[in-house]
Amino acid sequence: MKNRIVPSAFLFSFLLHAQLFAQLLLPDPEVNGDVSVEEALLVRRSTRAFIDSEPLSLNEVSQVLWSAQGITAYNWLRTAPSAGALYPMQIYLVAERVDSLSPGIYRYLPDSNSIEHIASGCFLDAIAKASLEQMWMRDAQAMVVIAADFDIVTDVYGSRGVRYVYMEAGHVSQNIYLQCVSLCLGTTAAGAFNDEAVTAILRLPDEEAPLYLMPIGR
Ligand SMILES: Cc1cc2nc3c(=O)[nH]c(=O)nc-3n(C[C@H](O)[C@H](O)[C@H](O)COP(=O)(O)O)c2cc1C
Prior knowledge:
Blueprint: H1 2-22, E1 23-25, H2 37-43, H3 58-69, E2 71-73, E3 77-78, E4 89-95, E5 104-109, E6 114-120, H4 124-129, E7 142-148, H5 150-157, H6 160-182, E8 186-187, H7 195-202, E9 209-217
Antiparallel strand pairs: 1-6, 2-3, 4-5, 4-7, 5-6, 7-9, 8-9
Bound molecules: flavin mononucleotide (FMN).
């Protein structure tokens, strides 16, 4: 009996710790930035040259992810509008040079404002090659990927749901652009990439499709 309890208690503790390590709680978002929406709109530009190799801070990364899909009301509604509040978007972080974060792929979990570890390694070079050789992407410190599960929306709205998903990706992308301006970071919404290659690199589940790649840098 004793022999059975000890291994199962050990296994439970191991799994609990593995789970804790697999998910990282992000710093709370700042909701009183120094840059007005009007200023951000005025100076927003697509940026493809990143001049500072200093890592992004976890606060900066957290802020950008929150701007994309953070929860803002009733534990459910988010920073970007969504047809029927169905929220088909999945946001991934490809971290290359981010403080306190080992290089790898992470999924943003809006409910807990945390990230879940998917894979370890440096992937920006492979993603740049899979993006019609847009090698400027390699110089970014990180990349935010907007992916979507179309079925979540088409199950409710039929074929019209497809356009709703693309519209929503635009909202999310613009949030990221404006948040980057406010943080003095640069980004570009990139839609030119090979779907199959990027899906494979990011280990996306079958039901998700990548829509936008947004390299983030200084
Ligand atoms: C749907 C879409 C796809 C885009 N794809 C790319 C891309 O693959 N690579 C890139 O460098 N820029 C891409 N862009 C950014 C545009 O080139 C950019 O927005 C445009 O030149 C206007 O510049 P601005 O964003 O600084 O106003 C894309 C923009 C949109 C809206």
